[in-house]
Amino acid sequence: MQTRREILSLIASIYDPLGFLAPLITTGKQILQELCRRKADWESKLPSDLTPMWHKWTRGLQDLSELRIVRSNMIEEDAAKSEIHCFSDASTTGYGACAYLRQITKEEVKCSYLLGKARVAPLKMITIPRMELQAAVVATQLVSVLERELKDFLPANTATHYWCDSMIVLNYISNDAKKFKVYVANRIQQIRDVSTPTQWHHIASGNNPADHASRGSEVKDIIRHWINPQNFLQQSDIKIPTTKLEKTTDKLPEARCLSTSVKEIPGLLGMMERYSKWETLINTFAVFIRVAIHKKKQKLTPLQLRKKAIRLIIKTAQSRLENRHLKQLDPYTDDDGIVRIGGRLKYSTTLTIDLKHPAILPKTCHITNLIVQYYHRLTGHSGRGLTTATIRQNGYWITGLSTAVSTVIHNCVICKKLRGNTETQKMADLPAVRLDPATPFHYSGMDCFGPFHAKDGRREVKRYGLMFTCLTSRAVHIEMLDDLTTDAFLNSLRCLIAMRGNVKSLYSDQGTNFRGAQTELKKKPG
Questions:
Q1: What is the pLDDT of the chain when averaged over all its residues?
Q2: pTM above the 0.70 mark?
Q3: Which of 49, 187, 214, 225 has the highest CB neighbour number within 10 Å of its CB?
């Protein structure tokens, strides 16, 4: 029985840089991947359910001795037409691509194998459209290698064609909307950096040689279906099929659909972006509405004008909503055309419509920013929690509200002044006495502390402490003082010198006992 280590050693020993045996090696890699998925130990034996597949694959390796491959590709310089055809395909177990050189001479059509690549599917399952898209990326990588290595040998008019049996991938590549998710968008960009949408064509799965790279193949099928595929490449005239592609991305998977039921009024949103305050914007549009209805001889109260202006502004802002933000909100459109949250409060008689079903607003919109700024000022420049709650209570549901509020607070000048960090004093450089080596208490600092109430017989007296600290070693020496006179301090200093040795420098505050001691110590003896 083979172990996982021996299986890996055998698969890695097959040297095939051009991919002649890619369909065969794929089957072996799939067995090894299954062992990895089961987290099998390196020395554990092959499970019984994988043993027949492994024996069948190893028996196929014995047939390699009968395989004959023409390694040289004769490039005809006088060929009437020279083309590179690259095929890609994917399945649930793997994906791959292969490239062929097709030349039309006066006598015949020559088709020769150039390069192939096959890979197993990742352990983390992904969708088939993503696998097909990854196979298309591999196809463009193969062509890039061929064009770089054969640039001195291929005719200048050599055309390149890509073939894929997935209509979804062809729609991805041909679509210029750029509304796809990150995974898909990045790979579409890689493909379009090397090729153009007109170079990609649809092919039936039965005629696609890359199908064997994605599913695996035996040795006997490699020559007929992989190295020398018996398909349309052998024909003297190839008709490029015309395929009907989707004009929009709404029906494609991985698409970010940006359409909503709210239509943007042309130029209105740009006009609103000129205002820097929510109150000013509402008042201005209330005046516009009043002028408009005056011509129709209608009358509205100032409060009605204000509400009508707010509804118009909200509808305009909702034209920037994305459907991916609405999926979990159960949205609906009210009688005024405003998109609101669904919820379960429909039959409440005490709550207003704004509290039961708040209007949905996009996070990245100038109007949304004005609303957040307005309620932030209304709450007295409060924090994120209170500002968020006030916005919700007034009937607005902003997608990504926490981030939007945090951004406004971060950019608010008043909040920076109120909540800014206080400045701290920069510490000065340490003096030399703190850094140079010296004996303990050679350089010392000192200070008094207290008083402490003590008993002297029946009397209660005050006592003080005198602390010396070594500036070099940070050692501490404490003496007791009867009072804070100069004589008491000098007596304690003599005790320190008697016990710790001579002191060269003493550092202290401007206490009267310390200043008096300084005067006494400066007097000359005698």
A1: 86
A2: no
A3: 214
